[in-house]
What we know:
Strand order of the largest sheet: 1-7-6-5-4-2-3
Number of helices: 15
Radius of gyration: 21 Å
Structural class: alpha/beta
Strand content: 5-15%
Amino acid sequence: MGEQTTEGPDHGVGGAFTDALDTRLIGAGRRHNGSALAPVIWASSTFETATVEEGRGMALSVGATEFYSRYGNPTVNDFEEAIAELEGAEAGRAFGSGMGAVAAVVLGLCSRGDHVVAQRQLYAGTQMLLQAVCPRFGIEVTFVDGTDPEAWREAVQPGRTMLLLAETPANPRLDIVDLVALGAIKGPMKVVDSTFATPLGQRPLEHGCDLVVHSATKCLGGHNDVTLGVVAGSRELIDWIWGFAVLQGAVASPHEAAGGLRGLRTLGVRLRHQSDSAAHIAESLEPDERIAEVRYPGLASHPQHELALRQMDLMGGLVTFDLAGGFEAGRHLVESTRICRLATSLGGPETLVTHPASTTHVNLLPEELEAAGIAPGTIRMSVGLEDPGDIVSDLLAALA
């Protein structure tokens, strides 16, 4: 027992015979599948060992997959290996949510007296962790404009700054961080939340960054039915995070990991359709006088459009726009659409609209919302798999 595998025939699992990500999406994460095509769910929380010595060895090892599922699980391990392969990483660690992954990275790598630099344009959950929880543990955080490479460099305190934490494209206004410039900063570890982009959109480790984080609940899972997070990077860093994660306990369920593996199989076709649809919708909304601004990395009007073209292969399925009528216009729109659904997640098959100031970023103070560029009439839209013409018609009808 112990480190058993049930490998089936070798049909070019993962990237053995190809560098094409579409092919690797289909083949990755099958080490424990045997002859099964669908992900195999190892639902057990506990595994029998043959001898005391075998159990002792697994208790002292990193990532034993058939010992106790807080330490590791074959299904979860397959998902971790798939993400690591797609990101070009040595290893990965899955968590019960995206915030579980972010918290493990920050609190697992930083100690009292350490310093973190993060951008102001962040998912509000991450921001609250940094500004409300970190100070309680003696971890100082400096927030900068993530779109300004010089601001990152100037904020680093040599010998004290442990992490640079970036998110690109950023939630909700799709600001872009220059990954080459970030990766070139010497000293601190560079961590990138790449949830909106996925490995098909960008691969931060190739630009000199150290860790990449995903809320796999979103685009990677892709069906609004899993809650999952993952971090990938060098084996040394992942092993260190693993040690903290075993104590933290925010582990991924094998059922959720299987959903994540299933989502990866269709990520390529989903994300390309969503990216094409998002570009069409953004271009259709931009001329409308009732909309003050449309944000989409693929639009020439996006402030970091040229940077997005350089470092992103797909622009993603998120579009953000500001309504000229402010809060009431935003409320009216999200409550009036018939195809677009009012919900706070993203990356699934349904098109979702969100009013960040009252939902995803509701805990931020007015000055913090302003610093993040979130206006009372800001709407974030996650484009689904519906016909893009129907989405445009639905939005225009709601605006009217």
